[in-house]
Amino acid sequence: MSKPKNFFRNLIRPFSFSSSKDGQNEEDLEKIAAQEQKNFPYEVLVSATKNFNSAHKLGEGGFGPVYKGKLDDGREIAVKKLSHSSNQGKKEFENEAKLLARVQHRNIVNLLGYCVHGTEKLLVYEYVVNESLDKLLFKSNRSQELDWKRRYDIITGIARGLLYLHEDSHNCIIHRDIKASNILLDDKWIPKIADFGMARLFPEDRTHVNTRVAGTNGYMAPEYVMHGNLSVKADVFSFGVVVLELISGHRNSNFNLDVDAQNLLDWAYKLYKKGRSLEIVDPKLADSGATDQIAMCIQIGLLCTQGDPKLRPLMRRVAVLLTKKPGHLEEPSRPGVPGSRYRRARRPAAMSSSTLGAGGSSGESDSRTYDTSLNSNTASASTSALSSPRQDRHGKRPMQS
């Protein structure tokens, strides 16, 4: 069997279950995935990227560099090339290939295929013309192109993408690294969730899993940072951070306004409690005329970033709320701060009937909700590990030993 064929079999193996819901066996899954994937010849990718010319380099992560290319049929592509010296990158590369083998959604970046050539391993994606959200929002003079309508559409698109990963894909997938730099924008400003190197399949019969902590500072949920407890609510927290960053134009991880607040979440929450939540809004949105919708999104962002994961809404409910006119939502509790332990969930007293009708309260019971019971040994060990995190130079990702 050829090396590309072996590599492809290894990609499909994680999707093989002894008893799947639709009764498909390994051969069925392999046939489906074979239709969805394309094996690119190495020479084609060399030609498309002008021999991986540095002028075509789009960026670099723990896996290695990403290059822009153009195929003979005119399609623009992004080629992710595994670095030979990166052990972490090899794991992320293989993980991304496995998880994206059968994922298809307009708000998820499209994996076109792969290439194995000797020691070279490459993944081929659609090229997304407007690059990443963080470059537009934080790093350029193009932020004025992000008017409120575009920002709102980006928020709703990310929500739909996460809903698909959590509930509508072949298995529940937790991304683990939702952040502005992992949201790509196409020529129609449609957001696409990217970089699945740290994503995990989530067992349907579990409320949470304990795993190595890996993510980006400022976006990780406190129960995950402190105790390694991972559930879909970790992605919900990260989504809430991105929502508040889109509204304010400020990055949570290096928030440095001269205000009495630890970070962006704390600032937004304190102003919300004083009835002044609109003071966090990016001045570029001052003339948007959509104050009610913006205020609703601020409240959704705060609900998603609550310290207790049981109080955070599921993405199903968030997606529904974003399709409705602004209405009454329950009061958010204090945002989560890594390093502090949250209290047990208390259901907010005031909830409107329309809110409950949109999928239940944010504290609703769900098979994928994280259980807040913790033992002191786990908390102590995790806190000790967090006190001296090992930083990944490519992504500021604290990782437990």
From TrEMBL:
Residues 52-322 form the Protein kinase domain. Residues 326-401 are annotated as: Disordered. GO terms for molecular function: ATP binding; protein kinase activity. CDD domains: STKc_IRAK (cd14066). Residues 372-388 have a biased composition (Low complexity). It comes from the Eukaryota. Keywords: ATP-binding, Kinase, Nucleotide-binding, Transferase. PROSITE patterns: PROTEIN_KINASE_DOM (PS50011), PROTEIN_KINASE_ST (PS00108). This is Protein kinase domain-containing protein. It comes from Acer saccharum (Sugar maple).
